[in-house]
């Protein structure tokens, strides 16, 4: 993994960088540089200075940045002087660009900024012909024309190109971007953001830069190129309202924050239109609290509201830049930033830096916050304390000590006396240390300095108390104190207290003098964090700060930091030490300080690792049958997004992303609105359909095709699992479950709620969710005892074995092989002709000569396929002689016209005929079904029971394929198969309240079997009469 940098700014405007291969923060070389905000991209970082100028830092590389300036010298031939720079009035300029429209003399070229330097002088480009022969000239008949290095007899004009290179010399340092001249620049800017380098497939794509002025205007930086990293000019982008802050992702996402707390989304961003086309407004995540900050990535959007709550926008994609809803994420942050690979960085409420762990493509919201626990300082330089009153580092050995000058030890209360200036003080390897004690001077409070006034004005105000009131409380108490304290070197070691491990701050050693408490409110550590946010204002603070204590962060940018979920980075460890940003009052008792720090350390340790709401995403590629004409298959991207609430509730959305006329669009289906998921047959693809109540009314489900059967089953299992989770359905089917089958043999199940039949909470039938059970049946019957029987297309009886929710596997003993055979029919149609008799030449209004039974769809033997790819042919096409109504010896049925009733013999009035062709196919699946041999059945009925029934055994009535009425006794949940006994003939039967009804097949008579009761004897079980 390449080495990249994380950039951050503290409240005093100092800029730090942290390498993924290092362990320490490194401050910028320019000690006078003060930035308010930074935005990083690949290999570069932009910043806004306190002087409202834009600064750029290009990462050093082996390849230098060079730009070639060029201009053309143009001449025309005349009979007296030959070729000369005296041109016709209609000619181009003597020195111009390649088009000749703009004058470009050599002296007009200037360096764009101090970050560039010339490499040599102007020279003729010798790439055209031999330099000794042509001198770099190109000849043509006239302007403009095609130039060539060969001079001809009719060459009346010529030109040659002059070039000069300039090199960018500010790599690795912060360079100021010059003002646009003569155009008016959009300064002052209050926010900038760079992105867009992943908008194309080009690996070296340059980023775009956007800015927001203090007047709420949005500006776009033009001309940024790998050879022109600074850009050339600013272009204003119109906005409907005043903008306070914006964020640009690496792709084509741009969100802006309005002053009223709402958000704007820029649409139409592309390579051809880098500034986009229009704005769409999105409301704040909370109606009561306005948004404070927004950050976007490739396909994620994070927002912080003014109550410091973090929100995640779900459903965001280049096809749907506005997203579909907000998810509350745990943690209290002041700002967030999205880096490479959609990794998230944040500045916490305690002014510490945090990283979102667990962020992956499948879980873009992550699962917790951890602190960035890097060390402070650098081996090359010593980071000074915060305005000479913030301290970091640990005391070193006495051999490493040095006596700083009086200027180094000056405090904000005034310079120390000569005694203190000569006091030896130990020096840290990473930071300067100020003596803790000595004779206290009576420096007047009015000499208090205001350090870094400009950065403090730009820092957020909510956490930082008024520095005057806080520091004056310290100073007023300090002025009343006349007790002197020895310096570090004078403290007796026998009275010292052992230093606790980091991040607990070292305690003061006990001396012979009493330590006086200051008149400062010490309730909790919140005041301590606030004290650090404004910085310590006392020079002789009697306390050393540990190495883990560092800058008070105000801004972070991870756009150039390449961190993946599997990256092993030393300063990103959930179990590592926290980068504590506690700042306690300078004079406290050792016992009190240790107790407060331990409590605060436990509080901060729990806070970053707190579990919160999360979002899980599964993406893939499928084919979609387009809803409108012309209907055709379209390659689409799909994504299933599931959000998990803090209470465990889950909510999912299924997205389909497609493009129409180069415009990105999307479809979305809420999983809680899905009513059925079934595989279907369409164009021999592995296809499944997603039904909702609205799409069912329109008779147009969402049809998707997968490249393989395994892929289709995976998506069906995934979607079905999400549907069950959002409805709280889990485990095996309940006894009150509703069972049904589709026309294609799929077994569907609905779990009714307790209020299914309640009038006040009645659920419409089109809103019921039906999940699929493994297996294949033609019909199914069930009752409240949990008994489920079914019949296949081949009249085989099957009984449910009680297993559900497990994937078909040969290892699972409860999943059995289930086979089914059915016949596929096509009809051959003919019309009688007086000349040729019956022929396949019909009238224009007739049905197709090969069709289905209805005659509405053309079906030939060649284009008719099995119901789904799971079926396979087991026979060839043959004439079917078992058609209802009878046939002649060739299988034909006759009628007067289409469509009428067909019969099996020809009459004088029969002008059309048809015959049915059949072919058998077979399916083999695994499901929780056991076969009940040996009699083939055509219909079945189970005795219904109430939910509170204590009945253990029920009879199962059935019809054989020959019309025999059968009854199976002893059927129970423990023995669902039992045994069978014959009765008489019927064609259909139904059972209700211990009464049996049957209908004969031929003369359609209805028979009723009187009330019977269940007992253990066969005679009583079969009833009392008929």
From TrEMBL:
Keywords: Autophagy, Cytoplasmic vesicle, Lipid-binding, Lysosome, Membrane, Repeat. InterPro entries: Beta-propeller_rpt_TECPR, Peroxin/Ferlin, PH_domain, TECPR1-like_DysF, Tectonin_beta-prop. Residues 397-500 are annotated as: Disordered. One of its GO terms (molecular function) is lipid binding. The keyword Lipid biosynthesis does not apply. One of its GO terms (biological process) is autophagy. PANTHER family: DYSFERLIN-RELATED, TECTONIN BETA-PROPELLER REPEAT-CONTAINING 1B. Belongs to the TECPR1 family. This is Tectonin beta-propeller repeat-containing protein 1. It comes from Crenichthys baileyi. The lineage of its organism: Eukaryota, Metazoa, Chordata, Craniata, Vertebrata.
